[in-house]
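Review session, final week

We close the course with one last complete record, chosen because it touches almost every idea we covered. It is Alkaline-phosphatase-like protein, a protein from Lipomyces tetrasporus with 700 residues. Go through it on your own first, then we will talk.
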Amino acid sequence: MEQPRRSLESIELEGEEDITGDYDAKDNDKEVLLQHDYTERLITDATAKRTALKKSKSKTVGFGHMPEYKKLANDDDGVITDTDETIEIDAESHLKYLRKKHRRWACLKSCLFFFLCAIVLGIIGAAVYVAIIKNKLGLLKPSSSPSSSASDSSVSPLSKSLLSNGTHDFYPTTIYISLDGYRPDYLTPEFTPVMWELYTAEYSTPFMYPSFPSVTFPNHYTMVTGLYPSSHGIVGNTFWDPDLHEEFDYHKPDHSLDLKWWKGEPLWVTATKNGVKTGIHMWPGSEAPWGNDKPEYVDKFNGTETLDRKVQRVLGWLDQDIDSRPELILCYVPTIDSLGHQYGTVGPEINDGLKQVDDMIGAILSGINDRNISLIANVVIVSDHGMASTSNDRLIFFDDFIVPETVEHTDGWPLFGLRPYQYNTSEQLYAEITSARAAVKAQNDSESESLESWQVYMKDDMPEEWHFGGPSGGQYQNRIAPVWMVPEAGWAITTRQQFEDYDHDFRPKGLHGYNNTDPLMRALFLATGPSFPSGSKIEPFYNVELYDVICRTLNIIGAPNNGTLKGQLNSLPDGWMDPNPFPSLPPTADSGSSDNNNAVVDDHAAGDHGKQQTNNHVDDDDDDVGDRGKQQTNGYSDDDDNDHASGDGKQTTKNHTDDNDDDNADEGIDGFENRLDDLTDHINEFLDKVGSQYGEMDDV
């Protein structure tokens, strides 16, 4: 039979019995003491085990779960079985866990706080750094000397740091002046001595190309955005937007100044974003509500304002304290354009206007010198387009080729952009015009010159160089009419009824808006100041480059645009020749007058304008020509004929005159024949002398 299991206590007692040999009360007391010692050892062991288990991670997070050490204590032969003690251990562990969790969350919050502070400080530091970089890098510095190398066509860097004229602090300043309708060949030493000096001695180009169409609003907005009209949205002085179902008309400022028309970023917005204060005097488009980026000063258009008032306005801005003084000043001058429309491109009225505008420019430059800021302020003088004289002999009658009632909208002028009614497609309209043109030519050969003086285009077939329609057009091509009648410079489209209303005397006497590369549409560019090396001659360029040129003088980075030179204009190559020179026509008359105010000049035929060699192209008004004077000149002027006629390459300084009498044509032919006879006689006399001396030549 299996022996009952004996406990450790009984074994030890048996050992004691073997030693003592009997069992009495003392032995019983000893057994009790042993029992007590054994219990103490178990308690000590349990306490040690519990302490060790406390150090291990509990697998529970609340009172609803039993920690691992509790389970182990229960597995220990039932010695530690006090439930209250176990709960006490679990509560203590959970409390420590919560304290530890709280410490971790406090640490996390501190880290998050410092992280956010670091981000904020980083943003502030980055903003300060960018401001420092903009103020230090790539900035324009004053020219080392007025006689900077003419071969350096780039705009010199000018520091944005504070400058001084000796008595007042200034920031670098740019004055941007537009002379509407001012052709570069208007420059002469007699009528425009101040601007002639700028052209010959300062920073200039023979001419600048406007954008197509060569009219005021598209080009003025191009000159402050660097965008072609089809990219900035102002595609004409008047046009229809089929998406808005509205017409833009510059005669209606309450409607045309809505920002929905004006896209891109103009100079005044770019300047304001870069902390450059701006003052604008009557520049087209500046009156629109530009919101937070609006200029500090904007003068509304006033067609009656005098040139003296414009001078006072510009110089008045320069006299303000530095905190309110504009650093970019834009000034619009419509004088020459208005006179050109009213009187044509030559005559005493134009001459007087040229003198007045030259005096205005001179007054501004004198004011700059008087204030001792010629090394601080840049002056840039441009025009938006040229001008061509019209004639009763150069008219295209619209109603000879199309029924006006079939056209819903007509855009532009002197170009005609045609939008047919819905019942008539653009292709049908184009076909009607071309077939009518062929029919007129077949019936009347005398109309051949008129028929060859204009072209008809579908929008998608327009020349790529115009950047107006087709693949080179911009995102606002929907504002461009689908069919266009485009006359050559000097020709005008009208109706027979309108011509009757004019009493058979077409007006206006001068027009623009033609092919932007036509010599008569060429624009002006002159500059002086610390950013423009004196004596530099610049290769002709397109006016989309002007935006970056102005930005560079102000040390600011412009918005994306269509310019490609990034403000770095190219020097005029040695031996440069005009890529589109005027063909010569025989003279039609010789007024024989040296009075420049009475000399007769026509855009369409040129006579002998003196014997001095010159590069000045000639502008003739109808059919008569006169002597432009005897001064040698290198100015540029244009010919307004269908053939773009000019003089014989020996013109002298242009002195504008006017004669609209077409009856002198026969006299002009007779005068030419008389000159030819005189020239033949001189040649014969010369050959006679040579032949008599050498006995080898006969009379011719």
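Two points worth writing down before the exam:
The two ends are 170 Å apart (CA to CA).
The longest strand covers residues 173-179.
Good luck, everyone.
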